[in-house]
Structures are given as structure tokens and as C-alpha cells.
Amino acid sequence: SDDLVRAVHRFMQYSDAARRMNVRANADNAEDAARARRMGAQGVGLCRTEHMFLGDRRQLVERLILADTDKEREESLAALLPLQRDDFIGIFEAMDGLPVTVRLLDPPLHEFLPDITELSVRVAVAESRGEKHENDLRLLQAVHRLHEQNPMLGLRGVRLGLVVPGLFTMQVRAIAQAAAERLRAGGRPCPEIMIPLVGTVQELEIIREESLRVLREVGEEYGVTLNYPVGTMIELPRAALTAGQIAENAEFFSFGTNDLTQTVWGFSRDDVEASFFSAYLEKGVFGVSPFESLDVDGVGRLIRIAVEEGRRARPGIKLGVCGEHGGDPASVHFFHEAGLDYVSCSPFRVPVARLESGRAAARG
Ligand code: PEP
Ligand code: MG
């Protein structure tokens, strides 16, 4: 079996030597990042920060949602800052010397808010027992206020960053502090700051300027230079169509093909597989779900437009993909052909992405 392992290794080396695209992995914590690296990932193409607000940090998030005053909000953010910083330190350490694209918070709000039924029951029970429940009641009112009919089209990504003061700057500060700490320890952190769900260049401009200001401030505090790229996801049709304008304010694009597929088709990512996709597959509307294998004619066309416009506006702009399609063989061939610089996928799909991008390059 040693012979077999050596043969596979040699085969991967040939493939790696042939390929033009880099292969990165999507990883949200230090363990996944380390695993991705062992699989041959050349960086983290998507570090989702949503999970960093869940689990035992929910209480802090609830306080943030409930904050009535600037002071209360700032206190909640200040409590989250060191936790986020430590998360990033771990990931930068695991990926030392390799790029780590950190995406600022992009929760569909419903996954992030306390459960409305649970909360209602808690309030009702407390009421029937004549117990104090003022906080739960306020929380329930806030959750009602924030409730959306279509959360996936709602207060997500950059929109949340623009609506909740200090949220994105806290995250950028955590990234900057983590990088500064790593530099002090002799490390080579390479963070890239990525802004999700951008539809217009103005959204990007505001957040980008704030981000660059925070990088400068933290750099001065630590006496180091924190000169890191700020870029955007392209995951809305409007972003793809106005990629030329957007590129003037973005050092890189990462195509979010999950949301791009959802918005190009008008399919709900969360629902379609269960509701009507089986009938569609059966009737031959498509042979494979467009969430699994990239829809080259529709979504792919938008990607080509964005690649062309982006490169025209900013020659040398770095272009990648971080949706699930980044690890799908047929889609990888498309991304190679469209001229992307890298694909990013789940750690366990990294070997497949390496092989397929090697094959795509060998094919010419
Ligand atoms: C995407 O939309 O393709 C993406 C990578 O982001 P998420 O899946 O987190 O929305
Ligand atoms: Mg997305």
C-alpha cells in the first residue's frame, strides 16, 4: 500500500505542476484550516464568520440585538472583539504564509435570532407564573421587529454591516489585531477582507473605507504595517453586471455561486431541493441541480461578464470562486476556462479540485 500512496502522490504532483488555478479551501476554524492545508489547500478562500456568533456567544449577540443605546451596543461589540481576534489568530497560525479570505458577517437573520416560538413559550410560561420576564419580552419584540418574509433577500451581508453601527469595524479590528499579534510572534499572516452580498459599488465603498481606516489605526497601535487587500463577493446579478464599477473599489472578487445561482434563477437555496427539484430532474428540465453543477449558460454567462469587466477596470484583480461549485469537477473546468485565478471548496474536495484543475489546464 506504500507503493500505492507513492503513486497517488506522484500523480498529484504531475497534476499540480500542470494546473494554472490555485486551490484553496473553505474553513471557519483552525482545525478545518489545518485539515485543508494537509489536503494541499493553498489558502483559505472563504472563512465564514457566522459561527463565531453562535453557540455560547449567543447571549452577547442577543445583547447586541437588544441594545437601545450606543453605549450598550459598544459594550456588546467590545465583548465579542477578543473572542473573534482569538478565532482569527488560530486560523492565521494554521495557514501561516498563505492567504486567508475572511468574510465579514453574512447571516440570514433568521438563523441568527433567537427562535420566536421558543421565546414566545418562555414569555407565556413566565407570565402564567407571574414571574419577571422583561428581558425575554423585549427580545421577543425585537425579534418580531426584525422578522422577514424572505430572510435570504433581507438584512444580510453588507446590508447588516451598514445598518448595525460598529459591527463590521469590530470584525475588521479583530482581523487586524490578530494579524498584528501574529506578526509580533514572527508569523506571516495574510488576511484578505471580504465583503458579502454587495449589489452596488456605494455599499462597498463605505465599508472599504472604514476597513482601511481600522487597518491603519490598529497598525499604528501595534507599530506594524497592516496592508491587506479588501475585496468583495460577487453573488448578486447586479454586482456581476456592474463589475467594472465594483472593481474600482475591490482588490479581488470571489464569486459566491450559491447565492448567484439562487438569485439568477429565483430559486430559494433552502427550499428547492425538497419542494420541486425532484420533479424537475424527473421531467428532464435539468439533468443535475444548478446548485450542484454550475449553470454555464446563465450563471456562467454572468461570471464571464464580471471577469471581463473586472479585469478591464482593474488589470491584475484577483478572481476566485468560493461557492460549493468550487469543488465540482465540471464546474472547475468552467472556472479554468473563464480565467479564474483560484477555486475554493470544502477541505475534503480539495484533492478533486486539484486534479480537475490540472486536467483542465492539460487540456488547454
Ligand atoms: C455563496 O453564496 O456562494 C457563498 C459562498 O456564500 P454562502 O454560501 O455563505 O452564502
Ligand atoms: Mg453567499
Automatic annotation (TrEMBL):
Residues 10-356 form the PEP-utilising enzyme C-terminal domain. The gene is ppdK. This is Pyruvate, phosphate dikinase. The chain holds residues 529 to 892 of 892 of the full protein. It comes from Marinactinospora rubrisoli. Belongs to the PEP-utilizing enzyme family.
